[in-house]
Structure formats: structure tokens, C-alpha cells
Design a protein that fits this description.
The complex is a heterodimer.
Chain A (H helix, E strand, L loop, with lengths): L1 H5 L6 H10 L6 E4 L18 E4 L3 E5 L20 E8 L2 H9 L5 E4 L3 E3 L4 E2 L15 H7 L3 E4 L11 E2 L12 E5 L3 E6 L2 E7 L5 H6 L5 E3 L3
Parallel strand pairs in A: 1-2, 1-5, 5-8, 6-9, 8-10, 12-13
Antiparallel strand pairs in A: 2-3, 3-4, 6-7, 10-11, 11-12
Chain B lengths: L4 E2 L2 H5 L7 E4 L9 H10 L4 E4 L10 H6 L3 E6 L8 H8 L4 E4 L2 H12 L4 E4 L13 E4 L2 E7 L3 E11 L5 E2 L8 H6 L1 E11 L19 E4 L9
Parallel strand pairs in B: 1-12, 2-3, 2-9, 3-4, 4-5, 9-11, 11-12
Antiparallel strand pairs in B: 6-8, 7-8, 9-10
The chains are: A alpha/beta, B alpha/beta.
Chain lengths: 221, 227
């Protein structure tokens, strides 16, 4: 069984971001969570107009600036310097989250610790009491965007499945996740749990199931 | 003649009382009024409750205010930063109270306070740890939490331009919490990078009308520090 997984080549973080980016159609308004999801923007070709929002009040966020062209008042939610695309705009925080909460975003992409087969997501705290909890905009985004996709490694570093029957970490939102992109597979989350759409080359459903806590089935068609 | 421009930091921060709830603009360091925070440190008010998205970076600005033991409680969405040393130390040793609020709920609670809305329902955080103790109600088939308005005794803000009536503009993403906090405090105090003549600001571009602003101090500090 271990050999079956060894027979395939898991995607790198960049490959995962590129895979997800392929599925974002032109014209969508999209919020990318801090961390790995931010890479997705690099893989949407400029001729496909997708408008990225950053919850600190930036609509039409562009790529990281050249070092000599930094606007020091323009950062994204991850507190990195970014640019504003032609046609972009600024707004204050209440308007920015009204846009999110009001269901105006087509898509939000977040990282996660765990996603459950009922669509629950846990991505803000591991109950580690040593450091202060920090939720940021994750709860507003997870429940506010029309669709929530998760981009994450299939397992933890120690090999525990991140696709679970029920989340053991504190929840970010209930029943919110529609699709998961991992380094091994693309899965839809529906009423019947996880349905596998795609797997990396050389991987079988059995081998994927072996590293996944929640039950899997192949998506129809 | 209305003139909200004050000449010194002492005038800007005069009258801030011990125990005040202080709304502090900014997202990280961007749009955070560091000169006013230094002014507040100098002014001496203590036992403060600070409402700020983050809990300070390094050992300056808000982190310094915390470090000096002047803050009893912080209300924020994301106390973690690249360098949250001071907050982490205080939190671990139980010397500061923390209220974690989802960022959008925090923004809307502030907006509501400024708009005379005492509370509102939001779906954010339903079914999570942060729903503890909050009224839940089902409306049209979806569950919501009752969240109360979050106003302050004083707001400390950063603007880009200001005139003597207190009309304000902001710079890029430094707008963030500043305009809503301006509406939600009994006393709104602003540090502005540029002071301009009344009439110089295009009325179409004024983001915060002067009605919300009480004092403005000119702080032409240049470019913000690391975000």
C-alpha cells in the first residue's frame, strides 16, 4: 500500500496552486487566504481577467511590486507589499467585509488544518494554548463567499489525514467547503462526502484512501 | 471659525482618561497612528481597552504601549504578527485580557456603533468557539449570532490629508479601519500626513467628513515602517 503511494509524484505547492488556478474562470471576484493560497494569483494568466480582493480593503490586487516601485501604503491581508491593477479600488474595512459577508465574492480559497466530509473547515487554531488564538478574517470569508475551496497538503507532516470524518480542531465554519485541492487529488465535497475528481498520475483510489481518514468515492463522470 | 487643527501632541491627546476604550486605526503598521500612540504614552492614560486589528509589532508603537502595562484588555482579530513578542509575553503570563473577534464582525460592530445600530445578526462564527455566550437565532432558514456594537471613548487614527474642518482622505490600503473608527468614538483624534486649506480637498474624494473628527495634528513622518 505504501508502495502504491510511492509510485506517484505528489504535487509541489506551486503545482497545487497552478492546478487550482486553472479552474477559476474569467470574471470571477476571488479572495485568496494568506499563505499558500496567495500563490494561486501567480498562475492566473493576465489575459484571463480575474479580480482578486484583499480583505484589508483592496479590490483588484495585483502582483508583488519590483523593489524600486513599492507603495508602502499598499499591502495585502498577509501584510506583504502588493500592487493595484488598473481598474482597482480601495474601500474601508466595513465595506470590505460587507462585500465578503454579503455573498458578492465568487470564490474564496483558504488553507486549512482539516476539512470534514460534511464541509466543515478548521483552519485557525490547533487548540495550542501556548500562543494566543488568531482568527483574522477566516470565519467571515469561509461563510461569506459563494464558494469556498481549500488548498492544503493531503496529510500532515507526520502522515495524519487532513480530510477527516469530523474536525478535531476548532471549527472556522460549518458545511462551507465545496472543493479541496491537495498535493494528491482534487475532491468535491457534497452531501455524500468526498468525491474524487482527479488524482496525480500513478495514484489509485485505494492508495489515496489509505492515507485518508474520511471515506472516498470516485466522482460520477 | 472652526479649526480642529491643534499644534502639539499634548493638545491632541489631552483629556484621554484612565479606563478609556481606545479605537486604534491600522492594519499592522499601515494606517496606524504611531505618533498619536507615542503621544498617548507620554500623556499617561492607563487601564485602557484597545480595539485594534493586530496587537503590535516589535517593541514600538502599540507594542510599546502594551509593554508599559497601560493596556488592560485588547480586542482584536489577529494578535499574531511577524514579531508579536510583547503581546505574546503579556498573554502567556496572564497580564492582558484578549477578546478575539472575527475581522469582519469587528469591522461591522464598529460601523454599527457609529451608525446608531446597537446590535446586528451575522452568520460569521456560528457553530464555532467564538459563538460562546452569544444569542443564536434562525432567520429564513439560516443561523445567525447577535453581535453588539463596539464604540470607543476615543479613536486614534491616521489620515493622508486633512483640512481645518477635519475632512479626511486616506492613502491606499492605509484606509482600513480608520474611516469606521472615526464614526464610532466620542472623541476622534487624527494624525495627518498633510494639512491642506479648506476647499483644497475634492468633495467627491473626501472619505471621512469632518463631522466625525474632533482634533487633527500634523505629523508629516514620510513613509510607514515595515507592515
Amino acid at each position: 500500500m505504501v508502495n502504491a503511494l510511492d509510485a506517484c509524484k505528489p504535487m509541489t505547492r506551486d503545482e497545487m496552486a497552478a492546478r487550482l488556478a486553472r479552474d477559476i474562470p474569467e470574471g470571477w471576484y476571488v479572495n485568496l487566504g494568506i499563505g499558500a493560497p496567495l500563490k494561486v494569483a501567480d498562475y492566473v494568466p493576465p489575459e484571463r481577467e480575474v479580480i482578486f480582493q484583499s480583505e484589508n480593503g483592496v479590490l483588484g490586487m495585483g502582483p508583488v511590486p519590483e523593489p524600486d516601485k513599492i507603495n508602502r501604503w499598499l499591502i495585502n491581508a498577509g501584510k506583504q507589499y502588493v500592487t493595484l491593477r488598473t481598474g482597482g479600488s480601495y474601500m474601508h474595512h466595513a465595506d470590505s467585509f460587507a462585500l465578503i459577508r454579503g455573498g458578492h465574492l465568487d470564490l474564496c480559497v483558504l488553507g486549512a488544518f482539516q476539512v470534514a466530509e460534511n464541509g466543515d473547515i478548521a483552519n485557525w487554531s490547533t487548540s495550542d494554548n501556548d500562543t494566543a488564538p488568531a482568527v483574522g478574517g477566516a470565519m467571515d470569508l469561509a461563510g461569506g463567499a459563494r464558494q469556498l475551496w481549500v488548498l492544503m497538503e493531503h496529510t500532515t507532516k507526520s502522515g495524519d489525514s487532513r480530510l477527516v470524518r469530523r474536525c478535531s480542531y476548532p471549527l472556522t465554519a460549518l458545511g462551507a467547503v465545496k472543493r479541496v485541492y491537495t498535493n494528491l487529488a482534487v475532491l468535491d465535497v457534497g452531501e455524500d462526502g468526498f468525491a474524487v475528481h482527479e488524482m496525480v498520475e500513478g495514484l489509485s483510489l485505494d492508495a489515496l484512501q489509505d492515507v485518508t481518514d474520511a471515506p472516498l468515492r470516485m466522482a460520477n463522470g | 471659525m472652526i479649526n480642529k487643527i491643534v499644534q502639539t501632541m499634548a493638545e491632541a491627546t489631552a483629556g484621554i482618561r484612565d479606563g478609556s476604550v481606545v479605537l486604534l486605526g491600522g492594519f499592522g503598521n499601515i494606517g496606524q497612528p504611531h505618533a498619536l500612540i507615542d503621544g498617548l504614552i507620554e500623556q499617561g492614560a492607563k487601564d485602557l481597552t484597545v480595539v485594534s486589528n493586530n496587537a503590535g509589532v516589535g517593541r514600538t508603537g502599540l507594542a510599546r504601549l502594551l509593554d508599559l502595562g497601560r493596556v488592560r484588555k485588547i480586542v482584536c482579530s489577529f494578535p499574531r504578527t511577524a514579531d508579536p513578542v510583547v503581546f505574546e509575553e503579556l498573554y502567556r503570563s496572564g497580564r492582558i485580557e484578549l477578546e478575539i473577534v472575527p475581522q469582519g464582525t469587528m469591522a461591522e460592530r464598529i460601523r454599527a456603533a457609529g451608525a446608531g445600530i446597537p446590535a446586528f445578526f451575522t452568520a460569521t462564527a456560528v457553530g464555532t468557539k467564538l459563538a460562546a455566550g452569544k444569542e443564536e437565532r434562525e432567520i429564513a432558514g439560516r443561523k445567525y449570532l447577535l453581535e453588539e456594537a463596539l464604540g470607543g471613548d476615543v479613536a486614534l487614527l491616521e489620515a493622508w490629508e486633512a483640512d481645518r474642518w477635519g475632512n479626511l482622505t486616506y492613502r491606499s490600503s492605509a484606509r482600513n479601519f480608520n474611516p469606521i473608527m472615526a464614526t464610532a468614538a466620542k472623541e476622534t483624534i487624527v494624525q495627518a500626513q498633510h494639512i491642506v486649506e479648506l476647499g483644497a480637498l475634492d468633495p467627491e474624494n473626501i472619505v471621512t467628513p469632518g463631522i466625525y473628527v474632533h482634533r487633527v495634528v500634523h505629523v508629516p513622518y514620510g513613509e510607514p515602517m515595515v507592515p
